[in-house]
Amino acid sequence: MNPSFEQLQQQLRQRGITEVECTVSDFCGIGRGKIAATARFLDEGGMRLPESVLLQTVTGDFVDDQVFDALLDEAGADMYCRPDPQACFALPWLAEPTAMVIHDPYDRAGKPIELAPRNVLKQVLSLYADEGWKPVVAPELEFYLTRRSHDPDLPLEAPDGRSGRPERGRQSFSIDATHEFAPLFEDLYRWCDTQELDLDTLSHESGPAQMEVNFRHGNALRLADQLIVFKRTLHEAALKHGICATFMAKPLAYQPGSAMHIHQSIQALDTGVNLFATEDGGMSKQFLHYIGGLQYFIPHLLPLFAPNVNAFRRFLPDNCAPVNVAWGLDNRTVGLRVPCASPAAMRVENRLPGADANPYLALAATLLCGYLGMRERIEPSAPLSGRAYAHCGLSLPETLDEALGRMETCDRLKTYLGDKFVQGYVAVKRTEHRHYKQVISTWEREYLQLSV
Questions:
Q1: Max Cα-Cα span within the chain
Q2: What integer is the mean pLDDT of 35-56?
Q3: Is the full-model pTM beyond 0.70?
């Protein structure tokens, strides 16, 4: 038994944990795995799962047989999932003392499974380590609180708050509107404190009952784990209080979408110095190259930031969301914002990822784009000031289908993400898109049924 696993064993026993949820993340960010008694978990030291769980769509379906056979072992071999002792989180809403332990999948030879999102992020972080660099990230995650609804054909609505009334209009940064859901957030913060999640601030966003939680800056892998855990924790807190929470990128028509903004900087591994700032506090060449890499490669990796058809509904100029990869100083209308900050905090904020993005893949993608910019010394465009919504010179793919096509044909990215991962991810998202196109929308029935 290795020392780190012994630490996990001690941690579970000190907390009195009697059950362990062993999980891995699929492409959609859904946790797949098994629940075991703590004694059984400690005896096994991990779990086995069929690798096929990583190729499930959000509907629980699988890709077609041709892709399935090309990417997976024909005999349906298991992958061997090893627990990460630093990714153990209590689940305080359950009556039985339970912990969720995030695992990493490997094949029989001990090689990391290429399809696993967490392994993809770890591979990107290893590229930085080889250069003597360390990424520092700080995610901002937006979400809506909604009424419970059992009919998906009905539009979502804001829930009743403590006053007994639903929120109307837009209440950006309203303290009173946030406190309408104070009992829910008190439970949420208590549970997150038990889980040692690095939450920073909570604020009200523009939409009705739309909120944002900011995380403190830190290690990319640990924060991706925390985002996965936070989403589940919020869902549980909302259910306890009789409402729902959603991380859909665009859950309400004519209202702002929900994003997962990612602040990012790079430190020297040995000194901790921020490589994005010069000694006199200006932007370094490496910083500008990082931005150049984001601008060049994000359009090829957009499906990792906007993974669903719904995510592309965010990218409308009147939805408070960026529609391009322009950059600018303290400009919230561009996709890449550089906040005003001290040299030690010099950073860029990627405002393109939706709240529905898998945190492991969104972080891996944005860091890979910046890494390639620094390695290849890609020059950025000139910074933009003023409103950038109408700027068309740095546009994004407009549909999921177009974005998947660009991702599929970008061979340079396959070198770093792996051909198997790119092929599998594109196949899963195309399968989801094919299912989506079979659904007839309310708009079509309302305007076409008796008019054409």
A1: 70
A2: 93
A3: yes
